[in-house]
Amino acid sequence: MTIDFLFIWIAFKELLKAAPLTLILTFIPIIFGFLIGVSVAMIRAYNLKLLSPIANAYVSFFRGTPAIMHIMLIYFGIPLLLDILIKYLHLPIQSNSIPIVLFVITALSLTAGSYLSEIIRSGISSVSQGQIEAAYAIGMNTFQVLERIILPQALAQSIPNFTNLIIGFLHTTSIAFLVSQKEITGAANIIASKNLKFLEAFIAAGFLYWIITAIIEWVSYAVEKKAKSYTNSAI
What gap in Å lies between CA 193 and CA 172, rounded to an integer? Predict the structure, then answer.
């Protein structure tokens, strides 16, 4: 058996067409997950009576079960619920008209939110109590303390963990192929099946994932360096 190096390059160029969808499935859930994560982290950090049990159950469930299960539950479950609602309200729409990618993004956003909430919560706990007390002593309210003291430092401390999560989600997008989304791994599988050159196709996919990961790490390093210099000067 010999490796067709020319086909690796051909496959790599074809896989570049699938890269935009992969990046969408990586970063959009991270963005929505960040908003969810901040909200859940605040609820849990301040132990809000009515919301804390719900937040704890959400984090426990989504961190305790695999992302592929979240996609399958939402992919099969949400259309079923929508069909019932549409029939009950006599709406002129159908659940099968909703793009599948929206279900995948929803599932991954909820998954990301659970992990990000823990990352942010650990960042919040790293902020010294002395700084918080000093902020209250000079007349800041709770919102100002969060905005100016707690969150900037918490987020700066959490950048390495954010980076790990983003890279993890980049690789997790490969399971979207199970619901017919042609991201990088799915495209590699299609190319390999058509040409019967599985090794070459997945070598090309591996190189593309590696390149994207390296770019994410480089950007993360630059952001972390900037954030730390800012927080150090502020302190």
Answer: 22
Question: 3-state SS of the chain?
Answer: CCCCHHHHHHHHHHHHHHHHHHHHHHHHHHHHHHHHHHHHHHHHHCCCCCCHHHHHHHHHHHHHCCHHHHHHHHHHHHHHHHHHHHHHHCCCCCHHHCCHHHHHHHHHHHHHHHHHHHHHHHHHHCCCHHHHHHHHHCCCCHHHHHHHHHHHHHHHHHHHHHHHHHHHHHHHHHHHHHHCCCCHHHHHHHHHHHHCCHHHHHHHHHHHHHHHHHHHHHHHHHHHHHHHHHHHHHC
* CATH architecture of the region 5-234: Orthogonal Bundle (1.10)
**Residue count of the chain:** 235
CA distance linking residue 167 with residue 170, whole number of Å: 5
Write out pLDDT tens, residues 44-81: 888 888 899 999 999 999 999 999 999 999 988 988 88
Q: What is the pLDDT of residues 151-167, one digit of tens each?
A: 777 788 888 889 999 99
